[in-house]
Amino acid sequence: MSDWACAGISDVPNIIGDHRCSRIGPVRLHQSLAGRAAVTGERLSCEYLSDTLTVLCDGNVTCGLDDPNGTRSFGNIKLSSVDAIWRDLRYAERKQRLAQGRSCDGCSLHHVVHGAMPERASAPRRLIVEATVTCNIRCKNDACFKNNDPSEKTRASNFLPLDAFKSLLDQTASGVEFMWFLNYGEPFLHPQAEEMIAYAKQKNPGMRIASSTNGIPFARPGRAEKLVRSGVDHMTFTIAGIDQPTYVRYHGRGSAAAALDGLRRVCEAKRELDLATPVVQWRYLLFHWNDSAETIAKVKELAAELGVDELRFYLTHIPAGGATRRLAFGSPDHHEIADLADASHGMRPDDDGLFLREDQESLGPYRWSAPTARVRLHVQGRFASLALSRPPQTPDAGVVVTLPWSKFTTRISGDGAWASMRIYVPRRYRRSRLVATLATSAWFPVDDDVPDIRCLGVMVAEREVGGDQTILFGARAMKNPHLRQKAREAQCQLSARMRSLRARLALRRRASETLAALKKKHRA
């Protein structure tokens, strides 16, 4: 199967210039653990319905890259013109369903719309072409199993005819900006794959084309040169192992040596022909069995030796139980691959250790923290506020909150409710930008069958949330039982300082009175 299917079809990366494909956003964990409802209550949209034509290898037209079995159909390019298919009323019906908050079955490529609904293009601006659904390896991915099962038939034919492809391009090429020559299957098992790419470039030299491969087809002599001459702009090689035992653990069958040889041949052909394209990317899928520090170092060394243009360590939740924890976003060791890591949009924390902002009607705006993060506090008068939470059915978390003047520990329950705290701020810190450091136990959502590969801490409210848990430092007592001792110690210290100050003032007052009496006596 295609390497997009290998990593999850909804995880197509940004591979051409500044273009942004649809990518699944951060998973709403408090909903995902209980099961996402078909009706979200939010207005939805899908850019694949708005400007993209997806053609399967039997000529059937579907939407996006999230229809492995070809169950959504808007027509067939062998039977109808592209214009007739593009104007099919079923497109409008699906867009209306999304606008009403009803997501498509089995698809996660939609996104929430907060402003005006996007207009649909008058003609396709992007193409996704599946040259074949067949594959020469057997990756451990549910989307691939059915298409590779000889007893199943998900396409009327397994190879897109060259004349059908040319007819498609004749009708669309002038207005198409991007073409993804990929979907399910290994594209370059099609004997005329390079000829198809070359024809698309001939029809529209400005069209940018990206494709993907497992690398094995290019181990055959002459195939790499043919690919480089075709004019493809970007080629991604998905190879998840540099030795055979590691390679077959995910890819199922095939040869690590052949895949790496295909990658090497394409890099060499590009240099020998002195061409700037294709940009060659090695996409190394990360799992818990291929993420050791030694392996990562060897992959980096080999990529440099082969002359790869881009190396990406791709974190994925597929297959179940395979996700890396050591190098997960937010984990202590993630720095080993930080500048080369890739994954779904929203999976990477910022420099403060906070992930992309999310917003829920029941919770309001919030951000997930990594196990260690820096959080800006909401300050009003003498108090700062901080609200933390974890979704239902998740482990409780002990959180150490370090402030500029002190620190305390609190416990956050996995009940989906905000634990809101009011923190007394000493006078000298009230005009400064207050930042607290949070340190908490790590939680991996993938352990709970949630397709989220982050290493998480707690949810942090983006705005002030009401609550009666008050944390005070100084002369006041605290409502938190486990912090009362700290308050008593602070009270004792303050009382001692006050007694000392009163004693000094009394001594100074007596000295002043004595001096005044002596002066009066002297004048007399």
Write a short abstract of this structure.
The chain has 524 residues and is an alpha/beta fold. It has helices spanning 3-7, 29-32, 47-51, 82-86, 89-99, 142-148, 162-172, 193-203, 223-230, 244-251, 256-272, 293-306, 484-523; strands spanning 44-45, 52-55, 61-62, 111-112, 126-129, 178-181, 208-213, 234-238, 279-286, 310-315, 341-342, 358-360, 364-368, 372-376, 378-380, 383-389, 397-402, 407-412, 419-424, 435-440, 459-461, 469-471. A 9-stranded mixed sheet has the order 3-2-5-6-7-8-9-10-11.
Describe this structure in words.
The strands form four sheets. A nine-stranded mixed sheet has the order 3-2-5-6-7-8-9-10-11. Strands 12, 13, 15, 16, 19, 21 and 22 form a seven-stranded mixed sheet that branches. It has a four-stranded antiparallel sheet with strand order 14-20-17-18, with no helix packed on it. It is of the alpha/beta class. It has helices spanning 3-7, 29-32, 47-51, 82-86, 89-99, 142-148, 162-172, 193-203, 223-230, 244-251, 256-272, 293-306, 484-523; strands at residues 44-45, 52-55, 61-62, 111-112, 126-129, 178-181, 208-213, 234-238, 279-286, 310-315, 341-342, 358-360, 364-368, 372-376, 378-380, 383-389, 397-402, 407-412, 419-424, 435-440, 459-461, 469-471. It is elongated and about 125 Å long. The protein starts with a helix and ends with a helix. A hairpin with a 3-residue loop joins strand 12 and strand 13.
